[in-house]
Design brief:
Layout: E1 2-9, E2 18-30, E3 34-42, E4 47-54, E5 60-61, E6 63-67, H1 70-81, E7 86-94, E8 100-106, E9 114-120, H2 124-129, E10 143-144, H3 153-161
Antiparallel strand pairs: 1-5, 1-9, 1-10, 2-3, 2-7, 3-4, 4-6, 7-8, 8-9
């Protein structure tokens, strides 16, 4: 189960400790239901290839991820998706309360480029109760789009790749 909230943001946050950084490429085989492939290259670390399935939903939804080989990733990207993959740079920051803030810069340099942030939670109750104010992020996380139609990466894929 994936439980997360999402905000549209501008730029990287100030003053938070950086935990890790990934360069990613991802593409969608299907948007409803979500079937996606992703390449994740951790800065200073390994590259992983993942096949992901997600159910419909907003705050909480089922997510199944399965590692795949690079060869299968390349075949799916070229033969099944056959469109330019979405490029993302993700930085994960440690918040004072122990949560992790994932900030993504999507398709940098492209006309539709944008930024968004997410926080994953252990329970729906924890997600609903979390407040950005104690972490000093009220201004940065002021545009919440959790569960709003058209705000998913799948919707972005449909607008820009199909």
């Amino acid at each position: 189960m994936e439980i997360e909230r999402k905000w549209m943001v501008e730029g990287w946050p100030d003053g938070l400790p950086l935990v890790e950084e990934f360069r990613m490429r991802q593409g969608y085989i299907s948007v409803q239901p979500t079937v996606r492939i992703r390449e994740e290259a951790k800065t200073g670390g390994p590259t992983r290839y993942i096949l992901c399935f997600k159910s419909a939903g907003g705050l909480a939804r089922e997510e199944i991820e399965q590692p795949i080989e690079k060869k299968l990733f390349d075949q799916l990207a070229a033969r099944i998706i056959a469109k330019p993959l979405i490029e993302k740079l993700r930085r994960t920051y440690l918040l004072p309360d122990g949560c992790h803030l994932e900030v993504n810069h999507v398709d940098a340099g492209q006309p539709g480029a944008f930024w968004y942030a997410e926080i994953e939670y252990p329970t729906v109750t924890a997600a609903r109760q979390w407040d950005p104010a104690p972490c000093g992020l009220s201004g940065y996380l002021s545009d919440e789009v959790t569960g709003q139609p058209g705000q998913s990466m799948g919707a972005y894929w449909e607008r820009t790749r199909t």
